[in-house]
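[Q] Does anyone have a clean structure-token version of this?
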Amino acid sequence: MRKFLSMLGILVAVAIISVSCGEAADKAKDAANKATEKVEKAAGEVAEKAGEVAEKAGEVAQKAGEAVKAVLGNVDHGKEIYDNKCMACHMTGVTGAPKMDEKERWATIATQGLDVLYDHSIKGFTGKQGVMPPKGGFADLTDKDMKDAVSYMLKTAGAM
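[A] Here you go.
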């Protein structure tokens, strides 16, 4: 009988241990599930914020591109103005106009800054090397036309 009681005691102990191990495993599983849910939620929030940041970065890049275009002018439009109005002087150097292939001269001119160059092209300018009549002598050109043409010339000459 003693053996039986000992065996019964062992079986009861094993049952108790099994039940408490099962409970501990269930608790560990619940804790792991909760931790996984928190991580997934946090990852979702981070992904959402990253999407918002990327969207804002895209907007900033677009605005920066527009600002650069506003400052530098529309180079494609400038080429059209140059080809139709400015080329006669700036290809030949008439009245001392800087020719398009005079890269060093254009680089020196560019150091004055865009505002000065735009002003000279719009209002006219008399310098040591020549004369720039207001709007190149074409009163029908707008200030924007002149800015675009100057930007085109600077870019083509490699000065910007």
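[Q] Thanks! Anything notable?
[A] The first helix runs from residue 2 to 72.
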